[in-house]
Give the backbone structure.
Amino acid sequence: MANLFTIPGRIVSGEGALEAGGTYIKAMGTKALIVTDSIMERLGNLKKVTDVLLREGVGFAVYSGISGEPTDLMIAEGVKIYQAESCDFLIGLGGGSPMDSMKAIGAAASGGGEITQYMGTVIDWELPPSVAIPTTAGTGSEATQFTIITDTEKDVKMLLRGPGLLPDLAVIDPAFTATAPPAVTAATGIDALCHAVEAYTSRKAFPLADSFAVSAVKRIFGYLKRAYDNGGDMEAREQMALAALEAGISFSNSSVTIVHGMSRPIGALYHVPHGLSNAMLLPECLKFIAEGAETPLCELAKETGIYREGMTERQGADAFTGAVCSLCESLDVQTLAEFGVSKDDFVSNISKMADDAIASGSPANTRRQPTKGNIIAIYEALWK
Ligand SMILES: NC(=O)c1ccc[n+]([C@@H]2O[C@H](COP(=O)([O-])OP(=O)(O)OC[C@H]3O[C@@H](n4cnc5c(N)ncnc54)[C@H](O)[C@@H]3O)[C@@H](O)[C@H]2O)c1
Ligand SMILES: [Fe+2]
């Protein structure tokens, strides 16, 4: 079967990537809207980017109003500023939230109307040129054809898609990730692990996307705990930045599956950060995925050195699942209760969350097709 494979137009990565990226950013236009959050401003990351723009003679305006994960209201505000400031390209600086917002602002500014009207539409028209500069090693948004925006009226995290959402330039400078606190490092790193494992075990997997998924899983097993234990370990930070990029490339081309499908409703209703809700779900979901995905999971066990001679495929798959659970435990992932979610409230919403998970389409990409009953059972297992 033939498969289309897409990546961002250009990728500049490694130490000094921001400095080196100046020339390519300049080629994007004359005035950028920089979409970011207040933490990036406070950390001095915004200034690092504006210094490069000033040096290159590129104009800019700043929208630093992305607080938490992006909503339709934040996007509407960004579109207003983009137009009022007569910008002609976009830069997203930060974690997945500012990068996704930057993409959505580009889609709404070029397509017209509200971002919510694009749910279910393939965004395939020409958007303003876009530059993604990640500061977390997680979402891979710098390399994906997706943006995730909350529809505040419906309390649903919309997954918007289309080739127009692929950034024209991704600047991956691991120096930005050095300040990410341990909890953010853990949650975003597990988000990347989910992307790669879900992509590799997806019904839509294919060889070219698989290569990126395998490479990402190996790097994450090798370096996530190191980056979590010592944020200043620049080798670990660089490896994780690459892993997040590779994992993003893998799932943007194949797909995510049950973990992401079930994660978005938790984020929409309880405002659990995306990486954390994935991390909460991953161990239970992997046990579900394992039946029907023994072969790819056993392959991942071999690639990561977890497989032992003489194991059956099923044993190899289980060993991989066990290693993922141990990794999550070593990163002190919070439970729903520790995050402050009320069990009674959660249980009362399980049926809606299961419906929203199925409606997103992601669970259907799992090899073993989950029923609504399966999904409810996994949500319930989060309280055991
Ligand atoms: N587009 C995609 O393909 C895709 C894929 C996965 C997730 N997402 C979306 O991405 C969003 C989550 O992104 P995220 O997990 O990167 O979190 P985030 O962007 O929301 O950032 C989390 C927190 O960490 C802070 N932070 C970020 N980088 C930092 C740094 N270097 N130093 C210190 N603090 C830093 C931020 O200011 C914020 O407070 C969600 O909305 C999720 O749905 C999108
Ligand atoms: Fe994700």
